[in-house]
Design goal:
InterPro entries: LiaI-LiaF-like_TM1. The chain crosses the membrane at residues 7-27, 33-48. Keywords: Membrane, Transmembrane, Transmembrane helix. The two termini are 17 Å apart. By secondary structure, the protein is mainly alpha-helical. It is built from two helices and no strands. The protein has one domain (3-55). 82% of the residues lie in helices and 0% in strands. The longest helix has 26 residues, at 30-55.
Length: 56
């Protein structure tokens, strides 16, 4: 397991989650949700990339 990728992945997910929590109760706006969702998805891919390689 690559712990450096896991660290950066968790960091991106946390940053994206914090950004998304600020806007959670407002009306949906794509521009407002783009960066937080991008950080969360990028972080999740960094965390689970080894498992995704094993599946395929």
């Amino acid at each position: 397991m690559n712990y450096q990728s896991t660290f950066w992945g968790i960091l991106l997910v946390l940053i994206g989650g914090l950004l998304l929590m600020r806007e959670l109760f407002d009306w949906f706006d794509f521009e407002r949700f783009f960066w937080p969702v991008l950080f969360i998805v990028g972080g999740a891919l960094l965390i689970f990339k080894d498992k995704l390689k094993k599946i395929s």
